[in-house]
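Narrative progress, year one. The postdoctoral researcher (J.K.) led the effort to move from monomer predictions toward full complexes, under supervision of the PI. The following entry was the first complex the group processed end to end, covering 600 residues in total.
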Amino acid sequence: MFPRILWKLLGASRGRLTVALIALTSGAAICSALLNVNLDAERKLTQEFRTLGANVIVAPPAAGGDAGLLDSAVVDRIEGLHIAEIAGAAPYLYVAANSGSQPVILAGTWFDQVATMNSWWKVEGRWVFSRGDHEHCLVGFNAARLLGLAPGSSLQLRSGDRNLALTVAGIVTTGGAEDNQILTNLDSAQSLAGLAGRASLIQVSVAGTASEIEGVTRKLAEALPRLDVRPVRQIAAAQGTILERIRGLIFWTVALILVLSMLAVLASMAALAMERRKDVGLMKALGGTVPRIMRLFLAEAGLLGAAGGLLGFLIGVLLARWTGERIFGVVISARLEVLPVTIALTIGVALAGAFPLRLLGRVRPADILRGE
Amino acid sequence: MMASLVRVEQLDKRFGDVRALDRVSFEVDAGEWIAIMGPSGSGKTTLINILGGLDHPTSGRVIVDGLEIGSLGERELTRFRADKIGFVFQQFHLVPYLTAVENVMLAQYFHSITDEKEAAEALARVGLSDRLSHVPAELSGGEQQRVAIARALINNPKVILADEPTGNLDEANEAVVLKLLRDLHDAGHTILVVTHSQAIGNLADRRIELEHGRLARISAPSLAKAKE
């Protein structure tokens, strides 16, 4: 009889229950989408962070000799370690040079790695992608303004008695130190400085969370004991902070959505409770105990919550996929572990929203049957 | 000597300053048909609500089948209603979204276990075997009241309490319901009926008349008729 009455209850109040179901489904859909995004966010954001440049620096020891330089072949040793998290590594040699009478910093590097590690750099003109390109350079935005350079301009650099002729391929804006530098091929910079095979430092881009970056740093430090290997702490910390903030944002948004859904359910259930006073009065008069009657209403709310949770989960998966494509440019796949969480949360919200129905337990049958 | 099925002693019921029942005392034997009569506001419905465990007395004692109602807690009162009492109301009070048979089964459900066959038989006894799957809105007033009577009887209650059972019925349906009550009485059921109707009052074994909450008189119309 219990399922029979329950079914009839659902049918009899389908108008108000549909409103409650829509509220629950909407809330569950957003929660499901956010939870799906949250579970994938770390992985997706980590991928995104990979494009934010180097987050580990390999440099000569602070008290080392040889004017604080290292062997540029160290990069080959790093590549030889085959650490999966390393997305790129580029040696840098910084040379003090002059363009006419204007002192400039020339940074010699591997353009192919720089392009991979710093895809977010804004370039006016064109990138230089080839490690073997000895003719072109990228000029930092501030340096270009100072020297009056534009894409296609010729540039003559001098360091001591050595000269280097380059053509400007592009003007680069990075928001960092590179804006004041001229970037060219590593070999060209080494030739100009007379420091063949030497580098000032190696920038390494590691994909992963702050702890994964720390792990790679440790591995590199073990493999390169005479060098100073250190994470760029601001970047690693910023990645961690962003992830934490996103998690916090998702948590509070989910909480807010659940509260709003509960209020909507509460409004529907309050109206429903008024409609059901007579039924409850009658059921009590017929010998129905409060727990037995309430079990009917709570089962109804629970069923509504389960249905809302299931529907919401399915809609949420689509929403998460859409969000993933729009924000991360990747497909966020459905996480099945979100399903029970969404259903449990929605049932909880439905039961909390059914509070007015619980108050029906206080109905006095004599008052109801008198017509009050 | 057999103990009374219902014993009311010095029953008082107040609603704030209003004294709905004022030191009412009477007894009802098993198998009796009692008509509770009196003008509006005389306390008839209050009396029947207390007898049925729907309301608490302010003072005095009400004993039904050996249970003193005033001493029962809310849970025990609910059990008392399920086990001992069958209600028939003027407004029928059927659950609108349940069919006739489901309305009868609802009383079974709160009493013990449901038995659809037994519920259908109860409806057949009140002449509604062809209306089992009809919801109240599809039934006439008389048919709804017969469903209510079938529901009142389904758990074999000790006492049937009917509050103006024909108050909302036309003459033809009133006759049908009265016949049912008479049949129940003949079958040995104890019936207390609140009524304004002299016709019902005359069918009862005894009439308990209330005025301003007080017991005005107890008469036995059937005995009077026998003397005539």
